[in-house]
Specification:
Elements lengths: L2 H11 L9 E2 L8 H7 L5 H8 L8 H8 L10 H13 L4 H9 L3 E2 H13 L3 H24 L3 H9 L2 H6 L4 H11 L3 H6 L1 H29 L1 H6 L24 H12 L8 H15 L6 H13 L7 H19 L3 H30 L4 H21 L6
Parallel strand pairs: 1-2
Helix pairs in contact: 6-7, 7-8, 8-9, 9-11, 11-13, 13-20, 15-16, 15-19, 16-17, 16-18, 18-19
């Protein structure tokens, strides 16, 4: 970080009572990453990553996260903390987005600082990165320029409903639903406070996450195109069968159950055995080979809990351990190389988290009393976006 940048950053941090750079709160589509990690069931992940990369002279996670969560001018830091903060921002790659945003933009919006880093780290294709960086820039303009300039709350709601992002990132039919709300109620404050508006906006956020996931999965499959073709999946919509589906007899399919059935097929488990029994045995046997000695019954019990979803959400390390065991069994049966086996582990981890998160999202939408048609629209976002991503990346589905 050069001297001019350091000086400007110090002014930004240590200027209580002054508004050198406006700080915008909230979001329309790109949520704070803390929200994303909560949805994924990994709220501890940012702290773990920060502490794993911690270097001498950095702030503690508690202080850094506190500073990140509030407008910079709202907090006074001690001189020693300011020096540590500048060192953290200068040497920590995960915070370069914040630094870049603070110095280049004339307004600070936290999700931009977070997502600009994530977008460029998530995708292997520059086309993907450019596409999502462009959408992020559009929301920055909306959040930091267009909406603040609107004279009334109603004008802001109308601008949001008519924005290109509502069509591109929202749930299918979202612009029409939002405009219908505004047509039925002239008081914008009542619209915002109503359960329909809140549910529609949550549906948009869920759709946004599914759309981003679709691009990530398409990008990953194209980067491993030889393996994708070898598996005969070049014309399949990957992970789409893990989305909850409304059943004619009532209720919704269990995405985690479908995921484990897929794992069982990979491992050629006997058809007359239960998923938890056969896969739990494979998991325990693999742990035994790694000089760990869990009871088979314990692993089977864990899988039953995951299937029911009634004992909390799976821990990230446990999912990785389970996926590694399944991948090891599957790669031995298929005669894959070591590099292909590692790619299999990554794919199975994605697969499980996608299924489990989809089920979690379904449960949350049901708690909020979303209509079943709205829930279906949310999950259709993935299907819609997957096709779009394949088309824009030059590999349309046949």
């Amino acid at each position: 970080m050069d001297a001019q940048a350091s000086e400007k950053l110090l002014d930004l941090i240590n200027s209580p009572g002054e508004t050198l750079v406006p700080y915008r709160e909230g979001c329309t589509f790109f949520p704070p990453l803390e929200f994303v990690f909560d949805v994924l069931g990994m709220p501890e992940l940012p702290k773990q990553c920060y502490e794993q990369n911690h270097q001498p002279g950095w702030l503690t996670w508690k202080t850094f996260s506190k500073w990140m969560s509030k407008p910079p001018a709202a907090m006074q830091l001690r001189p020693s903390q300011i020096l540590k903060l500048t060192k953290t921002l200068a040497t920590n790659p995960s915070s370069h987005g914040l630094l870049h945003d603070s110095l280049r933009k004339d307004a600070l919006w936290k999700p931009y600082a977070q997502w600009i880093v994530l977008v460029h780290r998530t995708f292997q294709s520059e086309v993907c990165s450019a596409y999502w960086a462009g959408l992020l820039e559009t929301e920055w303009q909306l959040m930091c320029k267009i909406l603040p300039a609107m004279p009334t709350n109603r004008a802001r709601l109308e601008a949001l409903a008519n924005s290109s992002l509502m069509h591109t990132l929202g749930a299918p039919g979202s612009p029409e639903r939002m405009l219908q709300l505004l047509a039925c109620e002239s008081d914008a404050d009542k619209v915002v406070a109503g359960s329909d508006f809140i549910n529609y906006r949550l549906a948009d956020l869920a759709s946004f996450l599914l759309r981003f996931a679709a691009w990530h999965i398409v990008d990953s499959s194209l980067a491993q195109w030889v393996l994708t073709i070898r598996a005969g999946k070049q014309n399949e919509m990957l992970f789409a069968d893990l989305l909850p589906v409304r059943q004619k007899a009532g209720g919704w399919t269990n995405a985690v159950e479908f995921c484990l059935k897929y794992f069982a097929v990979l491992c050629r488990c006997p058809a007359d055995d239960t998923l938890s029994s056969s896969l739990g045995r494979i998991w325990a046997e693999h742990d035994y080979d790694q000089n760990e000695f869990p009871e088979i019954a314990s692993r089977q019990h864990t899988l039953r809990d995951w299937l029911s979803g009634e004992k909390g959400r799976p821990k990230r390390n446990s999912v990785l351990s389970f996926a590694t065991a399944v991948a090891h069994k599957a790669t031995v049966l298929r005669g894959l190389t070591a590099s292909e086996a590692q790619a299999e582990v990554t794919g199975l981890v994605y697969c499980f988290h996608f299924a489990e998160t989809s089920r979690y999202m379904l449960g949350e939408m049901q708690k909020r009393r979303f209509s079943e048609s709205l829930i279906e629209a949310v999950f259709f976002s993935y299907v819609e976006e997957y096709r779009k991503a394949r088309n824009l990346l030059g590999q349309p589905l046949v």
